[in-house]
Amino acid sequence: MKRKIVKCPYCGAHAALRSATVVHGDRAKDGEHLWICSRYPACDSYVSVHKRNNEPLGSLANKALRRKRIDAHRVFNQLSDSGMMNRGQSYKWLQAKFALNSRQAHIGKFSEYMCDEVIAACSEVLYNNPSFRAARDTKRKPNAVGYVLGGRATERSECPSLRGRSKVEFVRTRGVK
Q: Could you give the count of Cα atoms lying within 13 Å of 28 in the half-sphere of its Cβ?
């Protein structure tokens, strides 16, 4: 079997397949593994793996990029969770929207810029969905658009991905005009 070579995009060092306890300690799930930069913790980049073959789920990411990817996944998943599209249709939409092929259309491979673009595009689609607007207009906060974390609506100061943004950027991200 050919050994997989994974390099850190930040420092250029090799990454190693290690137990998730190295990063997450006691919070790691049994048998969970990560590709971790060999310079960890000085270089805080790692990525989760496919359980069946230990292939990386994307590229190694530092803390800021991991946060962006989580936010992008939360908003992207609302396309299928809202019933607008099924999961397959959501990925087809992502491919068409950003001119990606099926191997490129994975949020785990996206940069911070691309995650921001996905958040904006998904927010626009969700905002223009009548049922989403109805939920917003009746003051029920939908689980969407990056301003709902952990099932509760947050203010700009409480949301890590929105902290420090201007009101205009916050409103745009929330999908509110």
A: 15
